[in-house]
Fold these 2 entries.
Entry 1:
Amino acid sequence: MNKELYEAAERGDSTGVQSALSQGANVNYENPEEFGGTSLHVAARRGYHDVVQILLSAGADVNLNNIFGVTALIEAARGGNCDVVELLLKKGADPSLSDDGGDTALIVAALGGHYDIVQLLLNNGADRSTANYVSIM
């Protein structure tokens, strides 16, 4: 059922997500074929607000990271999905968490030109002084 949950989330299929969860799928299943990403990661990245809401209501860990340290908030910010970023923040997503390269949701939103998300993150406690590990010479 875990793979079915991930695939339904990947498609934005809220009915499929609910079905997999009702059949016992682990809402925090870390898909090894997707570098330990969860259904929440893929739904956040693709902007599937309804699926994200279902997963969070089912107990998805809002701050769980994949093997590269990427959280669902970073995925949503990278994808430019402002409504999903807002939902994740309301559910306790930590804007200070960074991936293995030091990128936070704020950094990826700024790099992607998603200034509405930048403002939302700043309004929710993101630290504008955080730097990633990339040096420019």
Entry 2:
Amino acid sequence: MRWLLAARNTRVVFLIAVCAMAIVANRKANAAPVVAGVERFHAGNHAGNADSAEQAGLLLLGELNCTSCHAAEGAAATWLRPKQAPILDQVGQRVRPEYLRSYLTDTHAAKPGATMPAMVRGVDEQTRRTQIEALTHFLASSGQPADSAPVRQSIASGENLFHSVGCVACHNPRDAKAPKLATSVPLPELSAKYTIGSLAAFLQEPLAVRPAGRMPHLNLKAEEARDIAHYLLQDIHVEPNVAFEYYEGGWDNLPDFSTLKPKTTGKCSGFDVLAGERRDQFAMRFTAFLNLSRDGKYRFHLGSDDGSRLLIDGQQVVVNDGIHPHSFKSGEAELKAGVHELVVEYFEQGGEESCQVDIEGPGLGRQSVEAFLVLGRDGKVADQNSKPAFELDGALAEQGKSLFASVGCATCHQAAGIPRGASGYAAEPKSLAAMKSTGGCLAETPPAAAPDYALSDAQRTALSAAIGWLQHQTNPPNNDEIIRHTMTAFNCFACHQRGEMGGVERDRDAYFKSDQQEMGDEGRIPPHLTGVGAKLTEGWLKQVFDNGAKDRPYMFTRMPRFGTTNVGQLVSALATADPAALADVKIPEPEIAPRRLKSAGRQLVGASGFSCIKCHTFGGSKATGIQSINMTTMTRRLRPEWFHQYMLNPQAYRPGTRMPAAWPQGQVLLPNVLDGTPDTQIHSVWSYLSDGDKASPPTGLGSDPEELYVIDEAV
């Protein structure tokens, strides 16, 4: 009987141990860094392949920014695309201090899937808490984010934008029925991290603080970024701190508010220009109380679209009147510590609308004044039950500044007054060539002195394989390898297919939309990039990478800008790898006068030719049918050899396209134009379109006037 009880107890202990190990393993797996390209192309059925492990490891070495500590040199460096860490100069203005504290305390719990390691390690728990608090105060000393409440209309608009402009190509869709996709770039609890204003600012200019380009610039307008922020942070509850009066009317300058009767009055969070009913032809007068802790000279920056005026204690400080896009004007006021009445007058005639007030002064770097505003003259917040505001401790902030370098933060991050790379490590980390491919950061339980990335077993295996492979690598990657690796690192394959690789995933397909339903997938799915280096000029590729593109206005998903600093290597790699297929294409040089050649091209494009204008826009003129790519940009975008071959056989270059073959299998449908050959006729269209925006409108566009064609030179 005793033996049976002992055996049973042993089994129970064993099962408990197994369950505990499984829980720990599962927790680590859930916390492991998520890199979309690794999850899509090197996990699951792809795992276990030696080549796949090396490729996954190369991606991870870049995405985890390993080379900030372990320098890569020579050929090894050319295989990596290091992801620069976010710039933290003004992180206090963007991120709530409570989130900074929780993120430093337990990085992988605050943001599961984060690619940043846990850093404050190797000390006793009390010291660790003290160091984290000091770092939090240092980072928060760069400013304070101003809260505002979500607006119902903006939430609805933001939901539509989030699920249509391209956000869900990388991030998980947020509607109730959407499955959780392993290839989604994870997000933290956004309302714990951001305010609406700070998230909107980040969405509009992500490269300013995340220059590595993994979060690209979607060319969002200010209102679009704001609406998406309202949607993503719709669960925020914010006590109002500003009273407003709302007026309706049309003005070119600020009205005399003393002569007007408000249509509505109310309370809002910050200078919320969406608190009224209209988006154009309205005015607002905001009143709040500014609570200052120190005497001194304060400088105020008033930004608005359209006009505005700032008064403090009844005295005008800044005027930014008239109709104009969002712009700032500044003024100064000598103020005592205590409570001051602050009034902002604002009007909006048309277009976008915005109003913003920044403050800087004794102990304050430039930041939004909204964080210092209250409704009452007593200087107290309206809700006495709300959690106490974070109070900055200057002495702790100074301690945190020293720790920022000594614990290793500055190895990856730039912060106010501390350049990136200012490591305080006692021992210089080994280079990639000299390090072992096991142990250290790659250990199952990293030593106390090492960062902890919470790597999965597969990720450790992949990193070890890549390090070992790089240590014996003497050649740089070829163009195809540069293209594949760069497109995977920047998740280009989430939207684009190249060869047999990538393209829109099935579970995301429904979020790629168009307002030209009759175009089918061609109107909503971003184009294949097979052979794109033979298609687009190097100049146009660079422009697209630097500025994004909107050449397909019917397609809701936007081509973002990544910056050639990040993806510039693709320009030369694509231009070298792809055009070989068109090397034998010869552009004809017929002995035909340029005017006659362009005139014929104009005829072929117009209603008396192939009626290209039925489907393609021309400059500012719409097509009569679907609104396909603007013809006046084609010769700036396309290589002439590709254009020539595409005209002969569109289906060969884009299977399933609605573009018809004007010269099917080399047949000439309009034999009386020029010499009746496809080559000459295609060249005439190219010559005509080469005038770009200056090209004369084709026949049938607009009022459809009678056209005269020049057949011979003037005598």
